[in-house]
Amino acid sequence: MADPSLHHETQPLKQIAVDYTPEACDHCPDSNSIALTFDHRGGARWRTTSRFQYGTFSALIQCPKGNTSGLNFNLYLSSLEGDKSQDEIDFEFLGKDKTIVQTNYYTTGTGNREQIHDLGFNCSDGFHEYVIKWDKEHIEWVIDGKLVRRIERKEGENFPDKPMFLYASVWDASYIDNARWTGPYVGCDAPYVCLYKDIHVPVRTAVE
Description:
The chain has strands spanning 10-12, 16-20, 25-28, 33-38, 44-48, 55-62, 71-78, 88-94, 100-106, 115-118, 128-134, 138-143, 146-152, 165-172, 192-202. By secondary structure, it is mostly beta strands. Strands 1, 3, 4, 6, 11, 12, 13 and 15 form an 8-stranded antiparallel β-sheet that branches. The two termini are 18 Å apart. The relative contact order is 0.29. InterPro entries: Beta-glucanase-like, Beta-glucanase/XTH, Beta_glucanase, ConA-like_dom_sf.
């Protein structure tokens, strides 16, 4: 039987795939850093090239500066972005207020488990560490070493189990809920750049 602690051994992220607008995604494998830009081209989304089933995922993130109303920037796990039955575990920043972050998770396409957390800082004022720890029995969301949310598997309730990619994107979410979620898009400070560095993923990928 495999040692479950192996799921939480991590390694620097070396290779990514870019789902759209690759020219707005600047990846430097040597420095383990990624810059996503949102401007007149729209945003971009990167992901790992492999799925993982359980493990620890982390990055230092500096969110875009300026008036980011309307934008969503994030770090999340998903079995497949756009799939109606996806499993997902999220950190999502809402451009209308950069002093908060939203956590959420989905099982077979069903979410509605959002929680809002006060960061105690402006997420664009420097790099902060965001960690998702996911195993068979629980999920933890950790910011700068502080546990902000923990959920445990409960009998009879769905739990994220599908192998998942690590994703990140910057996109205009102002059309959702009549701009109540992220605010109306203003765009006065474009281009908006979200910086990721020291990105780590599990050593072991999922066997599919």
